[in-house]
Design a protein that fits this description.
This protein has helices spanning 2-18, 53-69, 81-98, 156-159, 163-177, 234-237; strands spanning 25-31, 40-48, 107-117, 121-131, 138-147, 153-154, 203-207, 210-215, 228-232. The chain is an alpha+beta fold. It folds into 2 domains: 21-154, Heat Shock Protein 90 (2-Layer Sandwich); 157-237, Actin, Chain A, domain 4. Residues 1-19 have low confidence and may be disordered.
């Protein structure tokens, strides 16, 4: 009996050690009450379960991004998503009180989903649409990458063995995709890179189809052009990645 219990305990410990970088999620939804012609907020994101460093990092990063998205006047002291939602509503009420005939109801929608996960990395995309008046709202995607082993959020410089080497390669692919001559300015066909030199977007993430580079509207082109996307298959990107993917 003792040997059987010992064997079971060792099996349990082996399973736990080999799953220390696993993380489970549950849906988190925060919305305003539904009413006609009212300012609305809808947040639907995955919430990491447990008290591990990885779970805390993921939840804090998602919360921070969404608070920033809902921060209209850049003076909000919101500490969590509920406070950010209320601050967004209060900002509309304040503006509507000053300009009641010009203020259309605002809208904020944020949806999060996991775009990629393997043993070492997980990527979550936040798709958002924010309308705070004017001719149109602003929609974008934000990719957040996390190291499952260390429990840290990964930034651009953390993803590559050599950022400069990857930038050079990405420019070659970008010029080919957008039919830009290999010689001459990167803006020769109408793009708006500052200083007329290619640069990487701040926003990039792992997807099932490859490493995705996401240029926000206005970042390198007009709003009418929408976001500019370059997806690099992993068989090409892996040479440059600190976290290569077999997918």
């Amino acid at each position: 009996m003792k040997s059987k219990l010992t064997c079971l305990l060792l099996c349990f410990l082996f399973f736990a050690c080999n799953n220390k970088n696993s993380v489970s999620f549950e849906p988190l939804t925060i919305t305003t009450d539904s009413c006609e012609n009212c300012t609305s907020v809808r947040i639907e994101i995955p919430k990491a379960n447990g008290a591990t460093k990885l779970s805390k990092t993921i939840n804090n990063a998602l919360e921070g991004e969404i608070i920033a998205l809902l921060n209209f006047d850049e003076e909000s002291n919101a500490q969590n998503l509920e406070e950010a939602k209320e601050a967004f509503l209060d900002d509309y009420k304040e503006l509507n009180g000053k300009f009641p005939e010009e203020s259309m109801p605002w809208e904020a929608t944020v949806e999060g989903n996991i775009t990629f996960e393997n043993d070492s990395i997980i990527t979550i995309k936040l798709a958002s649409y924010i309308y705070t008046g004017g001719a149109h709202g602003y929609g974008t995607n934000r990719f957040l990458n996390f190291d499952k082993i260390s429990g840290k959020e990964l930034y651009q410089e953390d993803l590559f063995n050599s950022l400069d080497d990857f930038k050079t390669y990405a420019e070659t692919l970008f010029r080919k995709q957008e039919s830009i001559p290999t010689e001459g300015s990167i803006n020769d066909t109408g793009f708006m890179f500052e200083t007329e030199r290619f640069y990487l977007p701040d926003n990039m993430g792992y997807t099932e189809n490859g490493l995705l580079l996401f240029y926000e509207p206005y970042e390198i082109a007009s709003f009418a052009d929408g976001p500019i996307i370059l997806t690099i298959p992993y068989e090409e990107a892996n040479t440059f990645l600190k976290y290569p993917s077999k997918t």
